[in-house]
Specification:
By secondary structure, the protein is mainly beta. The protein has a single domain, classed as Hemopexin-like domain (Hemopexin, 4 Propeller), CATH 2.110.10.10. The strands form five sheets. Strands 1-20-19-18 form a four-stranded antiparallel sheet, with no helix packed on it. It has a four-stranded antiparallel sheet with strand order 2-3-4-5, with no helix packed on it. Strand 6 and strand 7 form a beta hairpin. The longest helix has 27 residues. The radius of gyration is 20 Å and the shape is globular. The protein starts with a helix and ends in a 7-residue tail after the last strand. 38% of the residues are buried.
Length: 320
């Protein structure tokens, strides 16, 4: 009799866990999705004063959306007659970061092909003036610090610092966080940077970091991560899966020798509509006591872009 009760208890417990897990999965997969057929290669997104600013790595303009994902504006960045700048000469604007102190957004070339990708574009929202900033000194420092292949894919400002993430690939399976001063463009070639490698991955395929954003209220660094079948920082490859990596208390961890994410969200697992989507970037649109609200963008190498609006729990969910 006692054995029978024990078995019954275990069955009820497992069924409860299954129901909770499925409920969490359904809650987390409540997505708003919009495909932008006429805007190419979305690689970064920023949330600023109630609007979303998208940038494509071969696009010539910002695309501005409201929080319902409706297109409300377009801001020219680069003069070019083509809708998509050719791969051989594109600035490859893979990362963006908003500096609230100066009311400016920075768009960073990836650095994967000199000289075309060694520039940043700066746009001031108050004056509406845009100009370019050379990244030659910064990227030289990155190489001299031991990063063999420069491929900047994400950026954010945090407590007076600029954080950049360098994405690895199957041929160079290493991700790095680069930390420098937020006024990096005013420095000469001797300005200081620090490099923090992400922990080596134990399992294949290699997961490359494609973007990052900062949740200030909860001090979390949220990284978009994806698998892609490519052996260098220049070529595109077959799209695999996409994830979110979350690092808690990031402001206390910038001096560590290595970084790693203890919390990983498999996006395709929580919603099948993420299948085949190469998530490139995320931005935080708000936080509550229990949730972080996000907008993600995907570039699937077909000349279009996809935007996802979703929320994640601040603590680990069974759905993960």
């Amino acid at each position: 009799m006692r054995k029978s009760k024990t078995i019954r208890f275990i069955c009820i417990f497992l069924l409860t866990l299954l129901l909770i897990g499925c409920g969490n999965k359904n809650n987390m997969s409540s997505l708003q999705i919009k495909k932008l057929e006429n805007y190419p290669s979305a690689s970064s997104v920023e949330y600023i004063d109630g609007k979303l600013y998208l940038v494509g790595d071969d696009a010539t303009n910002f695309l501005v959306l409201d929080t319902n994902l409706n297109i409300v504006d377009s801001i020219p960045i680069i003069a070019n007659a083509a809708r998509r700048i050719p791969k051989e000469t594109k600035p490859d604007l893979e990362a963006s970061a908003f500096n609230i102190d100066s009311n400016e957004i920075f768009l960073f070339g990836s650095g994967s092909l000199s000289p075309y990708r060694n520039l940043a574009w700066r746009y001031n929202f108050q004056t509406r003036v845009k100009d370019s900033v050379s990244l030659e000194n910064l990227y030289s420092q990155v190489k001299n610090s031991g990063v063999e292949q420069v491929n900047i894919e994400g950026a954010c400002f945090l407590a007076g610092k600029l954080l950049l993430v360098n994405r690895g690939n199957n041929g160079y399976p290493k991700n790095h966080l680069i930390i420098t001063d937020q006024n990096f463009w005013n420095k000469d070639s001797s300005f200081q940077i620090s490099i923090v490698p992400f922990a080596d991955q134990k399992y294949s395929p290699f997961k490359g970091i494609s973007g990052l954003c900062y949740a200030k209220e909860s001090d979390k660094l949220i990284l978009t991560v994806s698998t892609e079948d490519t052996k260098n920082s220049y070529e595109d490859g077959a799209i695999g899966q996409s994830y979110l990596w979350i690092i808690d208390n990031i402001s206390t961890k910038l001096n560590r020798k290595t970084l790693g994410a203890k919390r990983i969200i498999d996006l395709e697992y929580i919603d099948s509509r993420f299948k085949g989507q190469k998530i490139e970037s995320a931005t935080v649109t708000g936080e509550t006591n229990k949730q972080i609200h996000l907008v993600l963008v995907a570039d699937n190498d077909d000349g279009s872009s996809t935007v996802f609006k979703m929320s994640i729990q601040k603590t680990t969910s069974l759905a993960e």
